[in-house]
Write a structure and sequence with these properties.
mainly alpha; about 260 residues
C-alpha cells in the first residue's frame, strides 16, 4: 500500500502548481480580462466543485460508511453540515476582501487590501486541498486502481479551476499597484493552504480510520458553502449575463466526465 501522506502531497502539490502557473499570468497579461470572462471562470469553478462534492466525496463517503456497518446517511449528512458550518465560521472571523468589492468581510482589521484579497481566495482553497488529500488517502487505503484514478480525476479538475483562480488574484493585485513579481508570489501563496489542508485531513483520517466518511462529507459541505456563498453570487452579480451559468454547466460536465471516465 502506498503511503497516503505521500500521495496526498503529490495530489495537492499538483493543484498548488496549477495555482502558481495561473498566477504567472501577471507577467504576460497587461490588463484584467473582461467581466464576462471572470464570471465564466467563477461559474466553471462552481460547477467543478459541485460535481466533485457529489462524485468524489459524498458518494465515496456513503459507500465507505456502508462498508463500516454505519448508517450511510449519518456521516454523510453530519460531515456535510459541519463542513459548511466550519467555512461559515471562518468566513465570519477571517478578514478578507473579494475582487471588485469595496468593503471587506469578517472581523474588523487594519490589514492591507492586498492581504485581504489573498485571504479571500485562500478560504476557497481550504476545502479543495482537503478534498484532494482525502481522495488520495482513500486511494492509498483501498489500493484499488479505480479509486486512485478517481483521486487523479479530482486533482485534475481542481487544477483546471486553479489556473484561472491564480490569475484572478495576481492580476487584481497588479491593478492595486503591487509589482508583478510580488503579485505572482501572493497569488501563488494563496494556494499553499491546499497541501496543508490536505495533509491535516490525511493525518486525521489515518489516525482514526472510522472518521474518513465524515471527513469526505466535511470537505463536500465546505466546498458547497463556498459555491453558494461566494462563487454563484459573484458569477451572477452586476450586469446580467449568462457567462456564469455557461461556465458552471461546463465545469460540472468536465468534472463529471473526468470522474466517470477515470474513476
Amino acid at each position: 500500500m502506498e503511503n497516503p501522506l505521500v500521495l496526498a502531497l503529490l495530489g495537492t502539490g499538483f493543484t498548488f502548481f496549477a495555482t502558481m502557473v495561473g498566477s504567472a499570468a501577471v507577467f504576460f497579461v497587461k490588463k484584467e480580462g473582461s467581466a464576462a470572462a471572470h464570471k465564466a471562470f467563477l461559474g466553471f469553478a462552481a460547477g467543478v466543485m459541485i460535481a466533485a462534492s457529489v462524485w468524489s466525496l459524498l458518494i465515496p463517503s456513503i459507500e465507505m460508511a456502508k462498508e463500516q456497518g454505519v448508517a450511510e446517511w449519518i456521516p454523510a449528512a453530519g460531515g456535510f453540515v459541519v463542513g459548511g458550518l466550519f467555512l461559515f465560521i471562518l468566513d465570519r472571523i477571517l478578514p478578507h476582501l473579494h475582487v471588485g468589492a469595496d468593503k471587506p468581510e469578517g472581523m474588523h482589521s487594519s490589514w492591507k487590501r492586498t492581504t485581504m484579497l489573498v485571504l479571500a481566495v485562500t478560504l476557497h482553497n481550504i476545502p479543495e486541498g482537503m478534498a484532494v488529500g482525502l481522495s488520495f488517502a482513500l486511494a492509498a487505503e483501498t489500493g484499488a486502481p479505480s479509486t486512485l484514478a478517481g483521486a487523479m480525476a479530482l486533482a485534475i479538475g481542481m487544477a483546471l479551476q486553479n489556473l484561472p483562480e491564480g490569475a484572478a488574484i495576481s492580476l487584481p493585485l497588479r491593478k492595486e499597484g503591487v509589482s508583478a513579481p510580488k503579485s505572482f508570489v501572493y497569488g501563488t501563496l494563496s494556494g499553499i493552504v491546499e497541501p496543508i489542508a490536505g495533509v491535516i485531513g490525511v493525518v486525521l483520517a489515518v489516525t482514526v480510520a472510522q472518521v474518513m466518511p465524515f471527513l469526505l462529507a466535511f470537505a463536500a459541505g465546505a466546498m458547497i458553502y463556498v459555491v453558494v456563498e461566494e462563487l454563484v453570487p459573484e458569477a451572477h452579480g452586476g450586469e446580467h449575463t449568462h457567462a456564469g451559468t455557461i461556465g458552471a454547466m461546463l465545469g460540472f460536465t468536465v468534472m463529471m466526465i473526468l470522474d466517470i471516465a477515470l474513476g
